[in-house]
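User: Please predict the structure of the protein below. I'd like the answer in structure-token form so I can feed it into my own downstream comparison script.

Assistant: Understood. Taking the following sequence of 89 residues as input:
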Amino acid sequence: MLDMSSDKQHKQEANMLRKELEMLISERTSLLKVAGAAAVFVANMDSEDLPVKAIEAADLLSTSVNNLSEESLKDALETVHAKVVRDHA
């Protein structure tokens, strides 16, 4: 009887962990979309065209995008189907 109770508890724990993992994966996907969109925005913005009130927020956004690991940035850009064009000038 103890083994059946223990087995049931393990199955419940595994199910709970599976749901938590699915939630985390979904949240990661959402965050990658945000990061990807932010990266594209930062890459295409011209800070000289920004209103003065937006410069601090743009700087924070730019710094945050630049602080992403290369792998995370790549995943984020892939999530929003962005293409990286390197400036060779």
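That's the full token string. The chain is about 75% helix and 0% strand.
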